[in-house]
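Late entry, evening session. Most of the bench is empty. Finally got around to the prediction I had been postponing all week. Sequence below, unchanged from the version circulated by S.P.
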Amino acid sequence: MKRALVTGGSKGIGLAISKMLLHEGYFVTATYAHDAASAEACTQSLREISSDFEIIKADQSNKSEMKELVGHLQEQKEINCIVCNAGITLKKELTDIDDTEWEKVMAVNVNAPFFLIRDLYNIIPQGSRIVFIGSEMGIYPHGTSIAYGVSKSAVHALATNLVKFFEGTGTTVNAVAPGFVETEWQNTKPEHIRQNICEKTALKCFASVDEIADAVRFCINNPFVNGSIIEVNGGYCYK
C-alpha cells in the first residue's frame, strides 16, 4: 500500500485531502499542531472511510516534534505522496509586525516544508507526488496579510525549484493555489467582508474544501503535471 503524508490534515482543506487520499487507496499520516479536539473529530471522520490512517501531533513551529515525525516516517521505509498543507496566517499592518511574528510565519509556512522534504528525500521513491498548498494571496497582493502572502509566494517558488532536484525520477512537484475557501479561517469573517470577496469572484461564492482536494487529486493522478501552480479561485480579481 502506498503511503501519504498530509500536514495539517485534521481539519479544513487538510481533512478533505486526507479523506480523498484514503479513497485513492493510500495509507494516510495526517498531522495536527495543537487542536486535539479537531484531531479526535478527524479520527472519527476518517474511520468512516478506512482504518488505514494515523494522526500525529507535529507542530511545524516545533523542531523537536517535526524531527520525531521524520523519524517515524523513515521507519516506514518510503513515502509516496506528500501534501504540505499546514500553515499559519498573520493579519497586521506593515509597521505593526514585529520580528518574531514575521519569522514564525516564514518558519511554519516555508522553512518547515523545505526541511521536511529535505529530510525525507531518501525515502521518496520514483514516481512519487509532492503537492504544496499555496494561496492566491501568493500571486495577488493583499494589504493586510503581507507575511502570509510573501510566505505563499515562497511556497510556490519552492515547488517549482524542487522539480529540478527530482528530475529523472518520475516524481512530480506542484502547488495548488486556492482562492477563498469555506474553512474556519473564512467563517469567522464579518458577513460584509465575505460578501465583498464574493463580489470579486466571478462565481460569487467561496470554494468548498472538496473542490481544493479535487485539484490535489488531479496533481496526484496526472503524471505529466509537474512544476505547475494551479489556481483554484473561482475567477477571483483582487481589483
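Two things to note before I forget:
The beta strands are 3-6, 27-32, 53-57, 81-84, 129-133, 172-178, 229-232.
The longest helix spans residues 99-120.
Will write this up properly tomorrow.
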